[in-house]
Design brief:
homodimer; mainly alpha; 2 strands
């Protein structure tokens, strides 16, 4: 997996505003929040989806920018989630959270600016040579981030504190909170190549939905079974905050079975594509079998 | 000015997610932050720029969506600016600020979601029938909102507390903080019609820069001369927070002269367009001569 991650890291370093440009402190904090950490799952999905189908697939220079845009959105959501008025966490990716290292006002603006930067990146002329597809990509990203996507999932998450949720309710929350951006990663990567028809895009979206949910289920399992040092973020936080998780709702054993079922579903969706999609399959495995 | 404002209000009511749709509380708070208040200067500028040139100008249905997108960005910036970690204000548009009426976490997500919604609106298929122009519009908006635009201006504003600024430094701050979005409003409106050439777009941008600065100068003057009841927001706040303003740097009399000079500059830029732009001229007058 190292190739895409190294490429993404280098591209982010280049595409984020330099800390030497005013406003320096804001740019320094944006770079702190985005660079040097994270599994880069979303860029991996962008590349895997862009490379599906017959070789050579989408131009890596395009996929790189899309992957960076998704990482900007992901990093913004983490910076805002860690703020005292939200999850109030001080540790992220093994480092002090952005508002701890800088200050709350700066962290707020970091998130706001990273969201704008993501849209700026997707509107870059290098992303696509069909502007109609590019507008579609921008719309997919905007819907995925908004009140009926990621931010809405976060709102449902906040409202769920102390509640007993059913499995469908928990699923609804995570399909929005984590799933929306993961689906957007696959959708944007797939649209960067012209290899896929409408039916295939739909089946890929089902793959992404399974992978997004599996990601969250495994997160909940790891939160129960791992240490803060391994994960680089505070473990047991959801339980301490009285938030429902797959483990609290299903129990550890059934949560693991669910993750395995979702992995199988994801592979079936890929098989139905009737085209090479090896890396997407590998990613489904990685997401479910990971230990961090 | 009533026509555009009423039209914008109705369109916002239609384009914002219903408070009956989940997550209800977030949608209710988004509507609270956007609807029923504000001068709607940015939609007015969108319409005036879109109607410049020979009749009939851009389709009002397009301008309406663009105006709403700019109001979503503007409202998001106000909601985040009012948060305790930023300006810590409790009053906005004559009502309790969003985080007071709801809570801080909800206000944070309201701002985040409104930013996404703005990009969703500008990527709407009704905005433009030339997708290349639409991608350009999305990029203009993203740059205007980001760390080298509005959010960056806010960061400079935060850093200026207790500082003595020169007039050029103050101008630099406001060109970003307020000016960036006002310029985007004019740029998007102008691109919604196909009446303007590249040279004219550049001269219109100079108009927008003057009007944006004038807006801030007049804001500072009104903040000194008006009451909280008239403005619907806390007056004298910048002075109390030890923030530099045009009045504190130039004095009241010279600030008024500057606003008048900027108004004249704006009119000269319009004259150089060599095409009808009556409403843009009226707006420059309104912005400088307003009493609220």
């Amino acid at each position: 997996m190292g190739r895409v991650q190294a490429r993404t890291e280098a591209a982010l370093d280049r595409l984020l505003p330099s800390a030497a440009i005013a406003p320096q402190r804001l740019h320094e904090a944006m770079r702190y929040a985005v660079l040097g950490g994270g599994k880069r799952i979303r860029p991996l999905l962008v590349f895997a989806a862009g490379e599906a189908g017959a070789a050579p697939g989408a131009d890596p220079a395009r996929l790189e920018i899309l992957g960076c845009a998704l990482e900007c959105i992901h990093a913004y959501s983490l910076v805002h989630d860690d703020l005292p008025c939200m999850d109030d966490d001080v540790l992220r990716r093994g480092k002090p959270a952005c508002h701890v290292e800088f200050d709350e006002a700066t962290a707020l603006l970091v998130g706001d600016s990273l969201q704008s930067l993501a849209f700026q990146l997707v509107s870059d002329h290098r992303v696509c040579n069909d502007p109609a597809v590019q507008v579609e990509m921008l719309k997919i990203l905007a819907v995925a981030c908004g009140s009926r996507g990621m931010a809405g999932g976060q709102a449902i998450d906040l409202a769920s504190v102390g509640q007993t949720l059913t499995v469908p309710e928990l699923e609804y929350m995570h399909i929005h909170k984590t799933g929306a951006l993961i689906r957007a990663a696959v959708a944007l990567g797939a649209r960067a190549s012209s290899a896929l028809g409408a039916g295939q895009l739909e089946r890929l979206d089902h793959y992404a939905k399974c992978v997004g949910l599996a990601f969250q289920v495994v997160d909940d399992v790891l939160d129960q079974e791992s240490s803060t040092a391994t994960l680089g973020k505070t473990v047991g936080k959801d339980a301490a905050n009285n938030k429902p998780t797959y483990v609290s709702v299903l129990g550890l054993a059934r949560a693991k079975v669910l993750a395995e079922e979702l992995r199988k579903d994801a592979h079936e969706a890929l098989a139905s594509l009737a085209m090479p999609a090896q890396r997407l399959g590998d990613l489904a495995d990685f997401i479910v079998l990971r230990k961090f």
